[in-house]
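SUBJECT: A protein chain and its fold
Encoding: whole-number codes for local backbone shapes
RECORD BEGINS BELOW THIS LINE
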Amino acid sequence: MKRSIFSLLFLLGTISAGWSAGLIVVDEAHWKHPLPPDGIVPPPWPSPRPRPEPWPRPWPVPPPRVYEFCPLEITKHQATVQIKDQIAITAIDQDFYNPNSQRIEGTFLFPVPKGAQIKKFAMEIDGKPVEAELMASDKARGIYEDIVRKLRDPALLEYAGQDVFKVRIFPIEPRAHKRVSLSYTQLLKSDSGLVSYSYPLSTEKFSAKPIPDVSLKVELETKRPLKSIYSPSHNVEVRRHGANQATIGFEAREVKPDTDFQLYFAPEADEIGLNLMAYKSGSDDGYFLLLASPGVDVANQKVVPKDVVFVLDTSGSMAGQKLEQAKKALLFCVENLNDNDRFEIIRFSTETEPLFNKLTDALKANRSRANEFIKDLKPIGGTAIDDALKKALALRSESGDRPFVVIFLTDGLPTIGVTGEDQIVGNVRKNSGNNARVFCFGIGHDVNTHLLDKITEETHAVSQYVLPEEDIEVKVSNFFAKIKDPVLTGPALTFTADIRVTRLHPSPLPDLFKGEQLVLVGRYSGKGPSAVVIEGTVNGTKRKFSYDVRFPEESTGHDFIPRLWATRRVGYLLEQIRLHGENAEIKDEVTELARKYSIVTPYTAYLIIEDEARRGVPILSQSLPLLQEDSAARQATVQNYNTMMVHRYGLGPVTRSRSELALKSANAPADAVSLGNEESLRGFDGGTLGGAGGVPRTWVAGAGPSADSQAARVAQYTQQARFVAGRSFYQNGNQWIDSTVQQLRNPKRVRIQLNSKEYFELAAKKPEVLPWLALGQNVQFALNETIYEVFDQDTTTGTRP
């Protein structure tokens, strides 16, 4: 596990942190209080650790008659950031709560963000200004190491090497709040046109319980028009206010943030802003991320007119809320057509009924007629999917001078006319040409995911699935708002010089829309200056844009890029396996990427344990040993994987497709892996095993799988992984083991005891290992063909050496 229960309680009792941006170290006098003889802790000790949602991580049962400590709780953390060009002012408001019956003293520490050049620092405690002492990194390291020695816990080592602000806090009254607010100013760095901002948000290791209120708001303003705005760490909401301003927001409730917040933005005057980031280490091919965005300062005459066909299933199974929500979504879409667009509406059940029998200009009169048609739709009959798609695609212009979009909504399987999956997909392929995009929305569980996903694969579009508890109107309306204003259609990229790019995701490239951006990741070989040439169609005219970039021979600054690429790659490959069958090469690639980058879902977990069993990996080096040893859960994982390969519809296939979409469209890899895992577990253990459709037998509404189910155990096992500073670590017994350890043959081994002289010498000489050491007391990692094993207890006897 991450650390023994003794040291875990010790840490939680002495350090209370809402964020790594600010934490309170409680004075040593308040550290420990022996339990009474009966071992029962009386009030006012806090209630047991609340179970994190959606599923718990496995926590071992604490040994009897250990010590309890005085924890502080964090009840709120809010951060507001104002950025003007490259100057950022960050204001933080934290609320600490002492739930204990005694007064506590402590010290507030604020690790300065890496790379920050702080010009101004102000702090208030309970509304009164206080003086804080700024300590340089060499002295700050001594503070952190001293705490590590006393607590026998290395969590704070992550911040060694950073400056720290230090201020005394007294008193912290019993059952009372202590509010801390601070602000600082920093100059942001710009690299190849991209400006970066980072906010320390990694607090999981310090929080005794989930934080009730987490919010971060960035007000961004630049002199030049804003093009790309991108966060690789969090799924943020971006609202643009004209060409030069935007608001970026992140909010969460009852969470333990464990990833620092990162934001990149590009102020540029070009028609399409294009920026490149790269990562390359060693002799392997490098990784790159390319951002392309037209921003919102696009003149109306440069927005491409489009043709849109709305195809709505009105069969009997759509009766009730489904059809009412779908009708509201279509009303929104019709009202948000551009004046120079053309559109048609086709409703289908047993037969197919178009409204206009042609593409019609989006004039006010035609929109009014469409609204009346939509309001009068009634559910009745079967499901003629093939005929509906044929009629929609027949409206496509052969000239291909306008984007042609079909928005297809259905809640069922084809029952009328042509019903064969391959034949329907073949008809779509034959009639779609090169410019048709068929976006499918599957409503409910009884939809053929193979059919819809193959249709979108053929037409370079995307499928989305709307569960019964979700709102169809919200899903469809949000999607249509994003594709409302095409700017560049049919884009293609080329790279000059000796640069060769491979395994791009997404591929082929989607169209570019006003206010949206392309996030492209891939691998590259070669080095040095190059030109990125992007070609596409603007209002029927071919356009070409060229941008000078540089691919580095060695660059490790943007270490999130490899995991982002791997996450998308795994999502894509899993979809290929599901839709087109297995082959050994694809399975091996998914397995290696999932293990290397901690992309663990029930599907990849099955592949990992199968691979390690086949290779005879010793149990002490395995990635998921508890799943390997739990025969019932392991067998359920195998059965779930195999069932998914044959089932086309039902809750299981729907949630698997949603899981793959979360991975292959990832912008923030950590969030995407979490969502992909959650989606796949939603359909596990009953979603398919219990037959098509319906609710899984073990699923508890609103709370995930029931605690005694196989799905709950698999959920626990798949969460026993951490991706830290470019490495995946898996919990094996009481150790965190680097996934690269099992790849070394006859390596040198070095054992180092926690808190020893050699331990702190290693931390000082090799700062790259600090994030790995911070994982806990017992860690194994590989470095320069050597395996370092840090230990606090003898792992064979369970006693301290």
